[in-house]
Design brief:
The protein contains twelve helices and eight strands. The chain has about 260 residues and is α/β, with parallel strands linked by helices. Helix 1 packs parallel to helix 2 (about 50-55) and helix 1 (about 15-35) runs parallel beside helix 12. Phosphoenolpyruvate binds near residues 182, 242 and 245.
Length: about 260
Amino acid sequence: MRRKMVAGNWKMNMNFQEAEELLDELVDRLDKELEGHDVDVVVCPPAPYLEMAYDLGTSEEDENQVYFSVGAQNVNEHDKGAYTGEISASMLASMNVEYCIVGHSERRKYYAESNQQVARKVEILLQNEIVPIVCCGESLEERESGNHFKVIEKQLAESLFQLKPLDFARLVIAYEPVWAIGTGKTATPAEAQEVHAFIRNLIQEKYGKEMARQTTLLYGGSCNAATAPELFACPDIDGGLIGGASLKADDFIRIINAFE
Ligand code: PEP
């Protein structure tokens, strides 16, 4: 179902104590300032802190009071077995992880993650009732050569469009132009909206109008408290996947507050 959403991707940052402090501050601020807000908030810390994030993000007095959901930054595409250092979807599910980022451009670049691997990760996450947040987006070179629409279409066709409608309906897509990630260069609202509308149209062609209308599409790439309001006001942008600005509670809270 289409939702307003802000997800924080901490990447490989924070030691244990710093992570605990940030999570505590987030809980405190969300408790005081955002009671009853209508935004799904997801925190994706490094894997060793997932359990702490779940524990701190759930009220001790009332376990139905959840300040944010917990997401992982990666998952292995295999079920289980001899894959030293890897983490399976069933392990994540057993730790109350509700979301998992897949196909982030840093994983595509540094770990050669292919669209086919993304497809397998998405499937195993869905089998384990974890919502994949699937990233797509073009490099600067691809944008400058006018190939960005083609690149995104191929990423989605090869990693997601094999899914049955009932499965597709459960995921979230994040458009993250690679040239905007960690560079301080946010896409303009017009650039982001254009691609989001294009993605919604691809979904409509493959799965029909209602699916396109109901899919949650996030923007990611140097989104911050200053740029979020205009981006989130775009008709096809449902929120953000936030890297650097999710590492400071104040910035993250202001982004959550950026919806009209
Ligand atoms: C990201 O890594 O998903 C991201 C959007 O990073 P940043 O906000 O730092 O550009």
